[in-house]
């Protein structure tokens, strides 16, 4: 975990223009990241109201300080199985898309990492087509791979359906 | 005071204070064109408004001043101190007249000839009057003015008219009224008495000049102009505050001795007052929306030669300006309709014993958080005969369907798009774009519109709209563990049902209904509708929310009912907007998010929206794209499994005596209505009964009939005909799920050709085109109902979505409505426009220009082919060659047949 130094603790020299900050999150031990500036809030377990007739990927809506936020189940979006047992409530990351707030439901949220662009690679062609749709690229980390999520595509439910 | 007048005063006072400053500026910078332009514009506006309001004195002064300013602007006159003084004098005069207006709502007596002469002289470039002269003129004017004010002010013995009104005791004033009835001023004499009460006591003591000064802009100071956006923001904030208050109240509700109770109570009161206050800032009297109506009615009465009396009651009833804006046009339209179509001419009215003058009465009042607006006329009422004719003509319903409807239901059709019974289109109405728009607009703001009409007696429209759009009252219900809000405006009543109570849910073939006061109420299970689980076992104790959409009343089955809450409607996220069941979402007092149900959407989803335009239109669109429900006749023949055939194909259901069956060429026939009708078995293995009566489905087209022998007729159901499994067995189209059961759909065409080899010209076997065409849309134009009904299932089973219309103009209407098809199949011989003309029309317009067209005709000669191609058909097929049709269609559509 040596390389996974939190952004704040890195020396100035290391933080060059060639790094980008990502909020990391986990589903089934797979690490994902989204650019830190797109994130509005990180929430613990929330009471989510189910929305009948909505697409499967929409987990429901929740109240974030008086604003109604639509919750997207990232697991379902990525074609993963629902969590078994469901004893541990998940967390969510709130993002803003064209003035509307969406919360991405994931298993847990990790720390913010500054990643060098040298470690960035495009999606391998063998990646699942569904994942390729939502992945903007991969970062090679020590012992781990981080999948950068394309939030815009992730939230574009209408397009994926058609 | 008249609103228009007070608005004018406010606006003019503002303009004048600007003018004062601007004029002084101008004097210092005589060549600043911008200032001059500004002054000119302001004076011009004042002049224009005066003319509009009928204030001749003010207008004359402003006009002359404008003339002079015009010369300045054009450079014909030089801006000098004298000229500016003169203009300022005019402004002062205007101020004086205004202040008088403010007090008495009428211009003072007298004229301004002196001033106007000077102004005109100035404008004509004549030598300006000597300063001294001007000064005296001003002085004179002032004295004159003061006299006028003094005269007009209620004094003991000056001007006779107001004097009579003011100090005299009420009875005397009343007595004097009839004498001066027709004259204008009496109209204003009533408020006059009250308003001038104060100056009458104090005014005389003071110097008149001081009084005029003090009163200068009393009205202007009392009102300020505020940006509407600011008010909107304020409203949103207050709405949020109300919600937060509600949350707090809910938290404290459970505890009696909470120390928060008292302050919270106070907070609650203040919040309520604040909400009301802010609401009031947005409130406007409905009279504002009516202001234009008298003029419109007057013009109409001149144009049509009718005598019309427009009465407007409750014009002071206030409602939210947002709502007001939205109902303005619908109201105008409806009054126009009443005047144009509703009322008869004076001749006609006299003949039927009505007073010559037709009456239109507008009435607005508050009722339980809503505004009710009624529009009544005592005209001829809706002409049922014409409406029925029009409905049938436009294919909105059949004669048979209409016979089963009440007059009230039939009248609702006037809210359908494209419906107008006016025989001729007048300049004002009759274009059939009206009532559907009216209804849509009203429903958009959560309102409802009802129509009552008695032929010969008149028509009554009742509009019910919410006071405001920002906060709505909603009923909170629970269903399948989730809570939902239903807008209170659509809820009529609540019914609790248990297995044992007098109200219980009954089933007609899986469709739940409720007997409610001698009526059968159709029910919708919210759980099923929202796919929240099945209804099994939940019929023990449930609640039914009786909702009304337009005139359609239905019940929504829910698990529990909570209380009503005030909610702020927030739009749903864009990705959820296509779910028509919800009109928005909101945050409840306890902080949880809940969805707001849209009764319109629910009604539309239940498919019983006869007569409602908005949702009906959506349904219509849906129908066009394959969700079409078909009436199907379900029967058994040659086995236990269910079979079905589109009901429309079946001419009659008969039972024939087995003994009446005769043989012809070894095949059974029966004499039926003077013809021999062949009887066909479903399959070879199946034999008829040997005695008794045999049920038969009769198919017929023109002269020919054919009987299909069946064992038993099970049911007639309405369902979406979607063939799930296609089979290659002759006589079967495939298997579909009909009313929840797997049912074989038989191919009537197959049996028809068995009976008469030439029924379709060429005997052919059914070919099962199982391959998927990806829901290609096909438009079928054929005047024969029989062939439409035959081809529609045939094409749908081959994977096409078929829209069938009976005439060319119907097809072109679809084009106008923006439908797009992948191919068009058209008959050639049709009443009205024929197929060739249709093709020309299609090719002559960009929208459908590239859509492949197939001609279908019983005349398939070389000459016809030639002509068909010439006008734009891609192919020409003999009418009964179904295989060729399917083949061609598949080819054209899959190979992007745009040629």
Features:
heterodimer, A: 162 residues, mainly beta, OB fold (Dihydrolipoamide Acetyltransferase, E2P), 6-stranded mixed beta sheet, 5-stranded mixed beta sheet, 12% helix, disordered N terminus, B: 899 residues, alpha+beta, Four Helix Bundle (Hemerythrin (Met), subunit A), Helix Hairpins, Heat Shock Protein 90, 6 domains, 31 helices, 35 strands, globular
Write structural notes for this entry.
- The complex is a heterodimer of chains A (162) and B (899).
- Chain A is mainly beta and 162 residues long.
- Chain A has a single domain (18-161), classed as OB fold (Dihydrolipoamide Acetyltransferase, E2P).
- Helices cover 12% and strands 44% of the residues of chain A.
- In chain A, strand 4 and strand 5 (67-73) form a beta hairpin.
- The longest helix of chain A has 6 residues, at 129-134.
- Chain B has 6 domains: 3-153 and 203-220, Four Helix Bundle (Hemerythrin (Met), subunit A) (Up-down Bundle), CATH 1.20.120; 228-281, Helix Hairpins (Orthogonal Bundle); 285-461, Histidine kinase-like ATPase, C-terminal domain (Heat Shock Protein 90); 471-621, CheA-289, Domain 4 (OB fold (Dihydrolipoamide Acetyltransferase, E2P), Beta Barrel), CATH 2.40.50.180; 628-755, Beta Barrel (OB fold (Dihydrolipoamide Acetyltransferase, E2P)); 776-894, 3-Layer(aba) Sandwich (Rossmann fold), CATH 3.40.50.2300.
- Chain B is built from 31 helices and 35 strands.
- In chain B, 42% of the residues lie in helices and 25% in strands.
- Chain B is globular, with a radius of gyration of 38 Å.
- In chain B, the strands form 7 sheets. Chain B has a 6-stranded mixed β-sheet with strand order 10-14-15-13-12-11.
- The longest helix of chain B is centred in the N-terminal third of the chain and has 26 residues, at 3-28.
- By secondary structure, chain B is of the alpha+beta class.
- Mean pLDDT of chain B is 73; it is low at 130-143, 154-216, 423-433, 608-627 and 760-773.
- The two termini of chain B are 71 Å apart.
């Amino acid at each position: 975990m040596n390389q996974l130094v939190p952004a704040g603790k890195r020396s100035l020299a290391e933080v060059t223009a060639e790094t980008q900050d990502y909020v990391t999150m986990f589903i089934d031990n797979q690490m994902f990241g989204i650019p830190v500036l797109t994130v509005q809030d990180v929430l613990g377990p929330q009471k989510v109201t189910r929305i009948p007739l909505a697409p499967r990927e929409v987990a429901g809506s929740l109240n974030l300080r008086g604003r109604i936020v639509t919750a997207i189940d990232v697991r379902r979006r990525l074609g993963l199985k629902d969590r078994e047992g469901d004893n541990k409530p998940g967390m969510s990351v709130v993002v803003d898309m064209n003035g509307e707030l969406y919360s991405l439901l994931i298993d847990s949220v990790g720390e913010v990492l500054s990643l060098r662009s040298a470690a960035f690679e495009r999606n391998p062609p063998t990646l699942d087509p569904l994942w390729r749709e939502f992945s903007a690229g991969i970062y090679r980390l020590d012992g781990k791979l981080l999948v950068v999520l394309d939030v815009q595509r992730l939230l574009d439910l209408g397009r994926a359906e058609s | 005071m008249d609103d228009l007048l007070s608005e004018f005063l406010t606006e003019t006072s503002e303009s004048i204070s600007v003018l004062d400053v601007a004029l002084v500026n101008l004097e210092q910078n005589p060549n600043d064109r911008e200032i001059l332009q500004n002054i000119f514009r302001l004076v011009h506006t004042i002049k224009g408004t005066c003319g509009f309001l009928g204030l001749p004195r003010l207008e004359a002064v402003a006009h002359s001043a404008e003339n002079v300013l015009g010369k300045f602007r054009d450079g014909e006159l030089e801006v000098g101190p004298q000229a500016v003084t003169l203009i300022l004098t005019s402004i002062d005069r205007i101020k004086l007249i205004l202040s008088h207006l403010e007090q008495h709502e009428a211009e003072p007596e007298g004229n301004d000839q002196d001033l106007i002469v000077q102004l005109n002289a100035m404008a004509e470039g004549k030598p300006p009057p000597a300063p001294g002269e001007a000064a005296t003129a001003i002085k004179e004017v002032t004295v004159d003015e003061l006299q006028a004010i003094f005269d007009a002010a209620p004094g003991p013995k000056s001007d006779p008219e107001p004097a009579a009104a003011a100090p005299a005791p009420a009875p005397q004033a009343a007595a004097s009224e009839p004498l001066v009835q027709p004259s204008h001023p009496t109209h204003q004499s009533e408020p006059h008495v009250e308003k001038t009460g104060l100056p009458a006591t104090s005014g005389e003591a003071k110097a008149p000049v001081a009084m005029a000064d003090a009163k200068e802009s009393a009205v202007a100071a009392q009102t300020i102009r505020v940006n509407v956006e600011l008010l909107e923001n304020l409203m949103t904030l207050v709405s949020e505050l109300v919600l937060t208050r509600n949350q707090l109240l809910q938290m404290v509700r459970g505890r009696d001795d909470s120390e928060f109770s008292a302050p919270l109570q106070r907070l609650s009161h203040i919040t309520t007052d604040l909400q009301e206050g802010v609401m009031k800032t947005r409130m406007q009297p409905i009279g504002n929306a009516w202001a234009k109506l008298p003029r419109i009615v007057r013009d109409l009465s001149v144009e049509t030669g009718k005598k019309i009396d427009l009465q407007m009651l409750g014009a002071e009833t206030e409602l939210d300006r947002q709502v007001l804006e939205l109902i303005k046009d619908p109201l105008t339209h409806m009054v126009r309709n009443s005047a144009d179509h509703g009322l008869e001419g004076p001749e006609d009215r006299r003949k039927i014993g009505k007073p010559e003058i037709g009456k239109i009465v507008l009435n607005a009042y508050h009722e339980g958080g809503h505004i009710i607006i009624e529009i009544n006329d005592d005209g001829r009422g809706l002409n049922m005969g014409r409406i029925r004719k029009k409905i049938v003509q436009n294919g909105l319903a059949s004669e048979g369907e209409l016979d089963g409807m009440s007059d009230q239901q039939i009248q609702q059709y006037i809210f359908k798009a494209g419906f107008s019974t006016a025989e001729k289109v007048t300049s004002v109405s009759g274009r059939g774009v009206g009532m559907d728009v009216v209804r849509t607009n009203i429903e958009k703001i959560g309102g409802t519109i009802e129509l009552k009409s008695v032929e010969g007696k008149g028509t009554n429209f009742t509009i019910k709209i919410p006071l405001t759009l920002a906060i709505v009252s909603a009923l909170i219900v629970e269903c399948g563990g989730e809570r939902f809000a239903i807008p209170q405006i659509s809820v009529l009543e609540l019914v609790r049902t248990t297995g044992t109570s007098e109200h219980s849910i009954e089933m007609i073939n899986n469709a739940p209904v409720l007997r409610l006061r001698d009526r059968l109420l159709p029910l919708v299970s919210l759980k099923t509708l929202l796919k929240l689980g099945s209804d099994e076992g939940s019929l023990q104790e449930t609640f039914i929310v009786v909702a009304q959409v337009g005139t359609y009343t239905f019940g929504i089955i829910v698990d529990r009912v909570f209380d009503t809450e005030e909610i702020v409607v927030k739009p749903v996220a864009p990705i959820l907007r296509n779910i028509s069941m919800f009109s928005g979402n909101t945050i409840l007092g306890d902080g949880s998010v809940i969805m707001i149900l849209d009764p319109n959407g629910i009604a539309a989803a239940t498919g019983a929206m006869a007569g409602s335009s908005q949702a009906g239109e959506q349904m219509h669109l849906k129908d066009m794209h394959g969700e079409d429900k078909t009436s199907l006749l379900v029967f058994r023949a040659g086995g236990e499994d269910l079979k079905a055939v589109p009901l429309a194909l079946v001419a009659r259901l008969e039972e024939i005596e087995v003994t009446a069956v005769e043989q012809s060429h070894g095949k059974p026939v029966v004499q039926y209505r003077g013809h021999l009708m062949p009887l066909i078995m479903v399959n070879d293995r199946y034999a008829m009964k040997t005695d008794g009566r045999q049920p038969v489905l009769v198919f017929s087209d023109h002269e020919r009939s054919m009987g299909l022998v069946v064992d038993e007729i099970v049911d007639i159901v309405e369902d979406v005909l979607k063939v799930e499994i296609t089979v290659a067995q002759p006589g079967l189209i495939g298997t579909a799920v009909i009313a929840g059961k797997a049912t074989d759909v038989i191919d009537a065409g197959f049996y028809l050709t068995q009976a008469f080899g030439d029924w379709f010209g060429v005997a052919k076997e059914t070919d099962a085109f199982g391959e998927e065409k990806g829901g290609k849309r096909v438009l079928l134009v054929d005047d024969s109902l029989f062939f439409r009904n035959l081809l529609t299932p045939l094409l749908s089973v081959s994977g096409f979505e078929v829209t069938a219309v009976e005439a060319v103009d119907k097809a072109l209407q679809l084009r106008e409505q923006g439908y797009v098809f992948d191919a068009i199949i058209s008959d050639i011989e049709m009443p009205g426009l024929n197929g060739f003309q249709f093709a020309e029309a299609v090719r002559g317009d960009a929208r459908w220009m590239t859509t492949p067209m197939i001609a279908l005709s019983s005349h398939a000669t070389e000459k016809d082919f030639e002509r068909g191609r010439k006008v734009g058909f891609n192919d020409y097929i003999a009418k009964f060659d179904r295989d060729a049709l399917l083949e061609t269609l598949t080819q054209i559509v899959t190979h992007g047949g745009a040629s």
